[in-house]
């Protein structure tokens, strides 16, 4: 009888430890999912900011946003979006059209370009091409 009680205690301990480990892993995964969504919206906001600037009269070049870093506050606090832009000129039906390929990389670190191996690091990258 004491052997059976000891086995039940051992199995209960193993089961309890496994459940705690599974629960902890699940919580970390959920937290990273939320941070991933925040990174997506930071990238989207950075991309929209870049598109706004190249499409404004008087701007119209990549020079105003190339290498620009946008730091966020509020719900996106802790995130930044880094922008790159490549402008090209195309002729369509005899009309010159400026095309801008804008890329926004958002992350929760001080430098998105180098990436990170830190626990909890997330990044998202979005790209859009606009013409003027």
With strands numbered from the N-terminus, the spatial order across the biggest sheet is: 1-2-3-4
What structural class results from the helix and strand content?
alpha+beta
Which descriptor suits the 3D outline? rod-shaped
Distance between the termini: 84 Å
Multimeric organization: single chain
Percent of residues in beta strands: 25-35%
Radius of gyration: 24 Å
The main β sheet shows up as: 4 strands, antiparallel
Helix content: 40-55%
Q: Output mean pLDDT.
A: 83
How is this structure best described in words?
With 132 residues, the chain is an alpha+beta fold. The chain has one domain. It is built from one helix and four strands, in the order αββββ. The chain has one helix at 2-55, and strands at residues 69-71, 80-92, 95-107, 123-131. The protein has a four-stranded antiparallel sheet with strand order 1-2-3-4. The longest helix is centred in the N-terminal third of the chain and has 54 residues, at 2-55. The mean pLDDT is 83.
List descriptors:
rod-shaped, 29% strand, 132 residues
SSE order and pairing:
Blueprint: H1 2-55, E1 69-71, E2 80-92, E3 95-107, E4 123-131
Antiparallel strand pairs: 1-2, 2-3, 3-4
At a glance:
With 132 residues, the protein is of the alpha+beta class. It has one helix at 2-55, and strands at 69-71, 80-92, 95-107, 123-131.
């Amino acid at each position: 009888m004491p052997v059976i009680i000891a086995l039940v205690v051992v199995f209960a301990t193993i089961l309890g430890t496994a459940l705690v480990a599974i629960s902890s892993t699940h919580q970390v995964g959920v937290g990273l999912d939320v941070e991933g969504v925040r990174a997506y919206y930071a990238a989207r906001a950075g991309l929209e900011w870049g598109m706004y600037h190249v499409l404004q009269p008087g701007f119209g070049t990549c020079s105003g946003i190339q290498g620009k870093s946008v730091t966020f506050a509020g719900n996106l606090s802790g995130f930044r979006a880094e922008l790159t832009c490549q402008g090209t000129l195309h002729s369509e039906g005899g009309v010159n059209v400026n095309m801008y390929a804008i890329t926004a990389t958002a992350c929760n670190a001080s430098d998105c370009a180098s990436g990170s191996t830190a626990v909890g690091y997330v990044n998202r990258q979005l790209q859009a091409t606009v013409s003027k």
